[in-house]
Write a structure and sequence with these properties.
- The structure is a single chain.
- The protein is an alpha/beta fold and 119 residues long.
- It is built from 4 helices and 6 strands.
- Strands 1-2-3-4-5-6 form a 6-stranded mixed beta sheet.
- Helix 2 links the parallel strand 4 and strand 5.
- Helix 1 runs parallel beside helix 2.
- It is globular.
């Protein structure tokens, strides 16, 4: 996936099924909702952007208004895939609703391949 004129570093905004994402210098900014209807799309987005993101994949979650168990499972699958290639998933600034969904993660999940940080 590339931005305008085929430039992989050009700003990119896309949307689909209540989930919008945007390239940022630090990673990807997600907005909207991640649920059963689009959790697989989240994994596809990260996979498509993986080459540009390097060894640390940072997802800014501040503008996500909802995440269910399917979204959490997608993040775990993404983190395990990244871990297997020596990379780390950083979840930045999740709001209250998203933090509540993420609360099902075990300490092992968090220590293994996911970091949750405030921007």
């Amino acid at each position: 996936m590339t931005g305008r004129d085929g430039d992989p570093d050009a700003p990119l905004r896309r949307s689909g099924a209540n989930l919008r994402w945007e390239r940022t210098p630090a990673g990807l900014r997600l907005e909207g909702e991640v649920d059963l209807t689009n959790a697989n799309r989240l994994a596809e987005i990260v996979h498509e952007e993986r080459g540009r993101l390097g060894d640390t994949v940072r997802l800014d979650l501040e503008a996500l208004s909802f995440m269910d168990g399917a979204g959490v499972r997608a993040l775990l699958e993404i983190s395990r895939s990244l871990r297997d290639s020596g990379c780390l998933l950083i979840l930045a600034s999740p709001g209250y609703i998203v933090r509540k969904a993420l609360s099902v993660l075990t300490p092992e999940d968090l220590l293994d391949a996911i970091r949750i940080v405030e921007s």
